[in-house]
Amino acid sequence: MIAHVLTPWTQDEEGGNHPLIDEVLAGHKGWRWTDVTGQPTANLNPDPNLYVIELTCDAATLAAVEADDRFYVIWSE
Amino acid sequence: MPYPIAAVRGKGSTAAAAAPVTLIEDTFTRADGALNGDTPEPTNTPGNTWGYLAGSTNGLNVVSSAVQPGTYVERHNAIDAETANLTVSVDGNTKSQTQTTTRQQSIIVRGSDWSNLWFATVSIANTLAIVEKNAGTSTTRASAAISYAANTDFHLSVTCSGESITAELTGMDTEAISYASASFNKTATIVGLRAIGQLTDWVAQVFDNFKVTA
Question: CB contact, 8 Å: A26 with chain B?
Fold first, then answer.
């Protein structure tokens, strides 16, 4: 499945993992995503701290993302 | 009227594309010690030495003809490849692991200082990621699930071409991810190696056979 997801983008200084990965995708397999906002960091708004990713994953992984109210699935198919 | 030769070659040409040229190759086959200040061998066309990106002097060490982090939380070394469009690759091994949080091995590309660079990173969080570090803020631009495991060999490569950055991993699944809007630092030419872990588990993530082609 493919989905566009609104998700926080700021990380710790060491390039630690994205909250979406750490807390929702962990334990799931076969997913990948890329930022489709395509904006330099300087142009990303820190408040609200959000950007859009295109997530490719199975139905169970997408259901886990949809069930977490920190993230908003704009569309999926 | 016949077409100019250049125009003919531009459409339907059978001329082979130029093969990549190795700019830097380092097998780390030398005495143990700090990587900082070393000259890559056997190939070093740009003629530069391993150093640090300005802002951090926590370096890596040559140990037993490979590179290991040492005894600190986050380390790196870098070298100027003198071109921004290139492929950087390295062999790695995850070695032992006693903790399960932050642990990464990375290739640095398009660096200008420690606060401004890109890296592709293999993480104990079971991810392969492309990260933009811009003015000290890290933003993951692409990521994929992998099966991270201890004592596992892998091969990581990163290709930069214009505003495209692609990372490919073999050895812990085979994954390729890319980001097509990498406008930040797109003319920066410093590349390198990065490792991060915790003091309690700083045993021996390993890098070997570092190579830069363009």
Answer: yes
Total-model pTM? 0.90
**Contact across the interface for B125 and A22, Cβ inside 8 Å:** yes
DSSP conformation letters of B91-129: EEE----S--SS-EEEEEEEEEETTEEEEEEEETTTEEE
The residue among A68, A58, A57 whose CA lies nearest residue A20 is A68
What ipTM does this complex have?
0.88
Residues of B in contact with A51 (CB under 8 A): 139
A29:B145 CB<8 A: yes
pLDDT tens digits, one per residue of B136-173: 888 899 999 999 888 899 999 999 999 999 999 999 88
Q: What angle do CA B47, B37, B151 make, to 5 degrees?
A: 105
